[in-house]
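Progress report, Aim 2. The chain analyzed during this reporting quarter is listed below.
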Amino acid sequence: MGQELEIEFKNMLTLEDYELIKQYYFKQSEPFKQTNYYIDTNNHDIMSQKMALRIREKNHNYEMTLKVPQEVGLLEYNEIVEDVPKQGERLDKQYLPENITEILNKFNIPLNDLRQLGDLTTYRLEKNIGTGLLVLDHSIY
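Predicted structure tokens for the chain:
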């Protein structure tokens, strides 16, 4: 599907700060829901390489993303997939898109040990503010 360079800045907010930002930038907006399902080995072989592999479910569509660190930011490899493996279930390596498989092999990630380890549901608000995309998340682990 494609690649993109991600450069993001994240801040943890108090509930008061969250509500102030929501009221100022997103007064008329409704959040959309997305769930990220994180994939790694039980030994966290992907995370130990400072990478991340997830499947994002949004509007009943599923996109697998592998994030690979660069000198600045993260290079994201994105591919559409059919569904999400159940939590704890081993991922069939045939399920992995070819370009993601190649990168994981390059980093010696044991493909037979990949499984869905957990998920995060986010209610997200987005607004383009000229200098970039402002995103306000309420996340539930």
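Strands lie at 2-6, 32-40, 52-58, 61-69, 74-81, 115-128, 133-140. Helices lie at 15-25, 98-106. These observations will guide the mutagenesis work planned for the next reporting period.
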